[in-house]
Amino acid sequence: MLKTEIDVTKMNQLPAAAHFAHKHKCPAIVVPPDLFRVAFLAKARMPSAQFKIIAAIDWPKGTNFRQDKFRGVETETMSADGFEILLTQRNYRDMVRELKYLEKLFSDYFNPLIECRYVLGWFAQDRDEEQFGDMIKAIQEVKSPTLIRTTHLTKLPAACNDADTHLEVANEITKPKRIPIKLSGNMNFRIRLKAKGDPISRYACTLEQAEKMEQDLSNGALEELKNIVSDEDGKDEKNV
After folding, report:
1. DSSP H/E element including 5
2. Where does 4-239 sit in CATH, by number?
3. Rounded CA separation 2/185 (Å)
4. Global pTM value
5. Taking the C-alpha atoms of 105, 108, 110 and 116 in order, what is their torsion angle to the nearest 10 degrees?
6. Residues 102-138: pLDDT tens digits?
7. Closest by CA position to 188, among listed 161, 156, 153
8. How large is the C-alpha radius of gyration of the chain?
Protein backbone atom coordinates (compact mmCIF):
# COMPACT_ATOMS: atom_id res chain seq x y z
CA MET A 1 0.00 0.00 0.00
CA LEU A 2 3.07 2.22 -0.25
CA LYS A 3 1.68 4.01 -3.33
CA THR A 4 -1.97 4.22 -2.24
CA GLU A 5 -3.36 7.61 -1.20
CA ILE A 6 -6.79 7.93 0.39
CA ASP A 7 -9.43 10.50 -0.51
CA VAL A 8 -11.47 11.52 2.52
CA THR A 9 -14.60 13.61 1.97
CA LYS A 10 -16.45 13.18 5.27
CA MET A 11 -15.34 14.07 8.76
CA ASN A 12 -16.45 10.76 10.26
CA GLN A 13 -14.11 8.90 7.87
CA LEU A 14 -10.99 10.70 9.03
CA PRO A 15 -10.04 8.69 12.13
CA ALA A 16 -10.23 5.39 10.24
CA ALA A 17 -8.50 6.82 7.15
CA ALA A 18 -5.67 8.28 9.22
CA HIS A 19 -5.24 5.01 11.11
CA PHE A 20 -5.19 3.03 7.85
CA ALA A 21 -2.68 5.40 6.24
CA HIS A 22 -0.41 5.17 9.25
CA LYS A 23 -0.66 1.40 9.64
CA HIS A 24 -0.08 0.63 5.96
CA LYS A 25 2.45 3.40 5.28
CA CYS A 26 0.33 5.21 2.68
CA PRO A 27 2.07 8.33 1.34
CA ALA A 28 -0.85 10.70 1.92
CA ILE A 29 -4.50 11.37 2.54
CA VAL A 30 -6.34 13.94 0.41
CA VAL A 31 -8.98 16.11 2.05
CA PRO A 32 -11.11 19.13 1.13
CA PRO A 33 -9.87 22.39 2.71
CA ASP A 34 -12.61 22.43 5.35
CA LEU A 35 -11.39 19.08 6.72
CA PHE A 36 -7.71 20.01 6.86
CA ARG A 37 -7.73 20.96 10.54
CA VAL A 38 -9.50 17.74 11.56
CA ALA A 39 -7.07 15.72 9.42
CA PHE A 40 -4.13 17.51 11.02
CA LEU A 41 -5.43 16.70 14.51
CA ALA A 42 -6.09 13.06 13.56
CA LYS A 43 -2.50 12.72 12.41
CA ALA A 44 -1.17 14.53 15.49
CA ARG A 45 -2.73 11.84 17.69
CA MET A 46 -0.28 9.39 16.10
CA PRO A 47 3.18 10.94 16.76
CA SER A 48 4.99 8.48 14.49
CA ALA A 49 2.64 8.94 11.52
CA GLN A 50 4.50 9.86 8.32
CA PHE A 51 1.72 10.33 5.77
CA LYS A 52 1.23 13.74 4.19
CA ILE A 53 -1.97 15.76 4.22
CA ILE A 54 -2.86 17.04 0.75
CA ALA A 55 -5.61 19.64 0.28
CA ALA A 56 -7.98 19.29 -2.68
CA ILE A 57 -8.41 22.68 -4.35
CA ASP A 58 -11.46 23.73 -6.38
CA TRP A 59 -13.11 20.31 -6.36
CA PRO A 60 -15.40 19.01 -7.78
CA LYS A 61 -16.01 21.52 -10.61
CA GLY A 62 -12.65 23.20 -11.18
CA THR A 63 -14.30 26.36 -12.44
CA ASN A 64 -12.55 28.95 -10.27
CA PHE A 65 -10.09 30.52 -12.68
CA ARG A 66 -6.54 31.69 -12.03
CA GLN A 67 -6.38 33.95 -8.93
CA ASP A 68 -9.73 32.58 -7.71
CA LYS A 69 -8.43 29.01 -7.40
CA PHE A 70 -7.68 29.34 -3.68
CA ARG A 71 -10.62 31.61 -2.95
CA GLY A 72 -12.20 30.80 0.41
CA VAL A 73 -9.39 28.48 1.52
CA GLU A 74 -8.61 29.15 5.18
CA THR A 75 -5.13 30.29 6.16
CA GLU A 76 -4.34 27.19 8.21
CA THR A 77 -5.03 24.98 5.19
CA MET A 78 -2.20 26.74 3.37
CA SER A 79 0.18 24.84 5.65
CA ALA A 80 -0.81 21.52 4.04
CA ASP A 81 1.96 19.28 2.72
CA GLY A 82 0.66 19.78 -0.78
CA PHE A 83 -2.29 20.63 -2.99
CA GLU A 84 -4.17 18.76 -5.68
CA ILE A 85 -5.55 21.52 -7.89
CA LEU A 86 -8.36 20.74 -10.34
CA LEU A 87 -7.40 22.83 -13.36
CA THR A 88 -9.90 25.04 -15.14
CA GLN A 89 -10.76 23.71 -18.58
CA ARG A 90 -10.78 26.66 -20.98
CA ASN A 91 -9.07 27.52 -24.22
CA TYR A 92 -5.36 26.82 -24.51
CA ARG A 93 -4.25 30.41 -23.88
CA ASP A 94 -6.32 30.71 -20.70
CA MET A 95 -5.05 27.38 -19.40
CA VAL A 96 -1.47 28.56 -19.87
CA ARG A 97 -2.33 31.79 -18.02
CA GLU A 98 -3.73 29.83 -15.09
CA LEU A 99 -0.76 27.49 -14.91
CA LYS A 100 1.74 30.34 -15.04
CA TYR A 101 -0.16 32.11 -12.27
CA LEU A 102 -0.05 28.95 -10.12
CA GLU A 103 3.63 28.48 -10.86
CA LYS A 104 4.42 32.00 -9.67
CA LEU A 105 2.14 31.63 -6.64
CA PHE A 106 3.99 28.54 -5.46
CA SER A 107 7.37 30.05 -6.26
CA ASP A 108 6.67 33.26 -4.34
CA TYR A 109 4.62 32.12 -1.35
CA PHE A 110 5.17 28.43 -0.64
CA ASN A 111 8.00 26.36 0.75
CA PRO A 112 9.82 24.63 -2.14
CA LEU A 113 9.13 21.26 -0.50
CA ILE A 114 5.36 21.68 -0.75
CA GLU A 115 3.86 19.43 -3.41
CA CYS A 116 2.03 21.06 -6.31
CA ARG A 117 -0.16 18.51 -8.07
CA TYR A 118 -2.40 19.16 -11.06
CA VAL A 119 -5.68 17.31 -11.56
CA LEU A 120 -7.10 17.07 -15.10
CA GLY A 121 -10.60 15.78 -14.42
CA TRP A 122 -10.58 12.99 -16.98
CA PHE A 123 -13.86 11.01 -17.28
CA ALA A 124 -15.91 13.84 -15.71
CA GLN A 125 -19.17 14.42 -17.57
CA ASP A 126 -18.80 18.20 -17.41
CA ARG A 127 -15.39 18.10 -19.14
CA ASP A 128 -14.64 18.01 -22.85
CA GLU A 129 -12.22 15.19 -23.67
CA GLU A 130 -11.11 16.99 -26.81
CA GLN A 131 -9.67 19.77 -24.66
CA PHE A 132 -7.42 17.50 -22.61
CA GLY A 133 -4.83 17.67 -25.36
CA ASP A 134 -4.61 21.44 -24.96
CA MET A 135 -4.44 21.06 -21.18
CA ILE A 136 -1.57 18.59 -21.45
CA LYS A 137 0.17 20.90 -23.91
CA ALA A 138 -0.32 23.88 -21.56
CA ILE A 139 1.35 22.01 -18.69
CA GLN A 140 4.52 21.83 -20.80
CA GLU A 141 4.74 25.64 -20.62
CA VAL A 142 5.47 25.66 -16.88
CA LYS A 143 7.64 23.90 -14.35
CA SER A 144 6.64 20.26 -14.02
CA PRO A 145 4.32 19.57 -11.06
CA THR A 146 5.05 16.97 -8.40
CA LEU A 147 2.59 14.74 -10.23
CA ILE A 148 -0.50 14.83 -12.42
CA ARG A 149 -3.64 13.14 -11.16
CA THR A 150 -5.83 11.84 -13.97
CA THR A 151 -9.14 12.73 -12.35
CA HIS A 152 -10.66 13.84 -9.07
CA LEU A 153 -13.28 11.09 -9.44
CA THR A 154 -12.82 7.87 -7.50
CA LYS A 155 -15.84 6.10 -8.99
CA LEU A 156 -16.27 5.75 -12.75
CA PRO A 157 -18.72 4.05 -15.13
CA ALA A 158 -18.22 0.32 -15.56
CA ALA A 159 -16.81 0.91 -19.07
CA CYS A 160 -13.77 2.56 -17.47
CA ASN A 161 -13.25 -0.24 -14.98
CA ASP A 162 -10.09 -1.77 -16.45
CA ALA A 163 -6.35 -1.20 -16.37
CA ASP A 164 -6.04 -0.60 -20.11
CA THR A 165 -8.27 2.48 -19.92
CA HIS A 166 -6.14 3.97 -17.15
CA LEU A 167 -2.93 3.15 -19.00
CA GLU A 168 -4.21 4.83 -22.17
CA VAL A 169 -4.91 8.03 -20.23
CA ALA A 170 -1.53 7.92 -18.48
CA ASN A 171 0.26 7.42 -21.79
CA GLU A 172 -1.65 10.29 -23.39
CA ILE A 173 -0.70 12.65 -20.56
CA THR A 174 2.98 11.71 -20.66
CA LYS A 175 3.51 11.72 -24.44
CA PRO A 176 5.15 15.17 -24.43
CA LYS A 177 7.02 14.72 -21.16
CA ARG A 178 7.43 12.03 -18.52
CA ILE A 179 5.72 13.35 -15.39
CA PRO A 180 4.68 11.09 -12.47
CA ILE A 181 1.04 10.06 -12.77
CA LYS A 182 -1.55 9.35 -10.10
CA LEU A 183 -4.36 7.10 -11.29
CA SER A 184 -7.86 7.55 -9.94
CA GLY A 185 -11.21 5.89 -10.48
CA ASN A 186 -12.47 2.42 -9.49
CA MET A 187 -9.07 1.43 -8.13
CA ASN A 188 -8.82 -2.21 -7.22
CA PHE A 189 -6.03 -4.72 -6.82
CA ARG A 190 -6.34 -6.07 -10.35
CA ILE A 191 -6.00 -2.61 -11.91
CA ARG A 192 -3.07 -1.81 -9.68
CA LEU A 193 -1.32 -5.04 -10.59
CA LYS A 194 -1.52 -4.33 -14.34
CA ALA A 195 -1.25 -0.52 -14.33
CA LYS A 196 2.11 -0.02 -12.70
CA GLY A 197 5.64 1.16 -13.35
CA ASP A 198 6.94 4.43 -14.75
CA PRO A 199 5.27 6.91 -15.05
CA ILE A 200 2.61 5.68 -12.59
CA SER A 201 3.63 6.63 -9.07
CA ARG A 202 0.39 6.81 -7.03
CA TYR A 203 -3.12 5.39 -6.83
CA ALA A 204 -6.11 7.32 -5.48
CA CYS A 205 -8.63 5.34 -3.44
CA THR A 206 -11.54 5.87 -1.18
CA LEU A 207 -11.06 4.30 2.24
CA GLU A 208 -13.41 1.50 1.17
CA GLN A 209 -11.36 0.81 -1.98
CA ALA A 210 -8.10 0.85 -0.03
CA GLU A 211 -9.47 -1.55 2.58
CA LYS A 212 -10.68 -3.91 -0.15
CA MET A 213 -7.25 -3.93 -1.82
CA GLU A 214 -5.56 -4.65 1.49
CA GLN A 215 -8.08 -7.41 2.20
CA ASP A 216 -7.41 -8.99 -1.20
CA LEU A 217 -3.69 -8.91 -0.50
CA SER A 218 -4.16 -10.47 2.93
CA ASN A 219 -6.34 -13.22 1.45
CA GLY A 220 -3.63 -14.28 -0.94
CA ALA A 221 -5.17 -12.69 -4.01
CA LEU A 222 -1.78 -11.42 -5.14
CA GLU A 223 -0.55 -14.75 -6.51
CA GLU A 224 -3.95 -15.53 -7.99
CA LEU A 225 -4.08 -12.21 -9.83
CA LYS A 226 -0.49 -12.57 -11.04
CA ASN A 227 -1.46 -15.87 -12.61
CA ILE A 228 -4.51 -14.30 -14.24
CA VAL A 229 -2.48 -11.44 -15.66
CA SER A 230 0.25 -13.83 -16.82
CA ASP A 231 -2.33 -15.97 -18.64
CA GLU A 232 -3.87 -12.89 -20.28
CA ASP A 233 -0.47 -11.61 -21.40
CA GLY A 234 0.31 -15.00 -22.89
CA LYS A 235 -2.92 -14.95 -24.88
CA ASP A 236 -2.14 -11.45 -26.12
CA GLU A 237 1.30 -12.54 -27.34
CA LYS A 238 -0.21 -15.47 -29.26
CA ASN A 239 -2.65 -13.10 -30.93
CA VAL A 240 0.04 -10.70 -32.13
Report:
1. strand 4-7
2. 3.20.20.70
3. 18
4. 0.91
5. 40
6. 999 999 999 999 999 999 999 999 999 889 999 999 9
7. 161
8. 18
